[in-house]
Fold:
Amino acid sequence: MMGKKVMLYANGIGPVIKPANRRRVRRAVSRADVITLRDINSVEELRRMGVNRPDMEVTADPVFTFDGISRSRALQLLKEEGIPVEKPFICVSLRSWYGIPDFEEKMAFICDEAAERYQRNIVFIAMQTPYDTEISQRVQQRMRNPSWILSNRYATDRIMGMVGCADFVLCMRLHTLVFAARMHVPTLGLVYDPKVLCHLKALDMPSLGD
Structure:
């Protein structure tokens, strides 16, 4: 409206549910000078909304340009949180979501199975506090085995470095999955949103289901 150039930089699109909001997105995005999107699912979603621009480009999530802190520094931060680092661990990153019956009990069972069968510690990382901390605590309370919650607020490079110390990541949060990919850690995703499934497919990593 002010005559300024506009670029969509590696945006993820959706979910946009209400028809009126989908029309607003179509009008706004159609007027951008440059459109870059972080995944093909976002391109397809815009096309379903009626954005027929042939120049939409798929690029990478900007998080892939970040670097994590060194492994030694990340292990030190984990120690300062009281997490034993002598034993390999699995990073678990959850968020609250509606319509998942018995979610906390099922997640606790999965975490206990991983702890017992594969002899791994379980470390929950809260990407969005306090909400992710709360769901992690509720799962933790239902577990048979000890686990730890990394609930302090850290800068991106520190979280990424700590994720890089894990054997693998069990995750709902998209950006924890991106951190894991950036640090070359295998992932197992829990799909609450199409963007998570799109990311898993792009990297040929498995999904635990919707």
Observations:
- The longest helix spans residues 103-117.
- The mean pLDDT is 93.
- The radius of gyration is 19 Å.
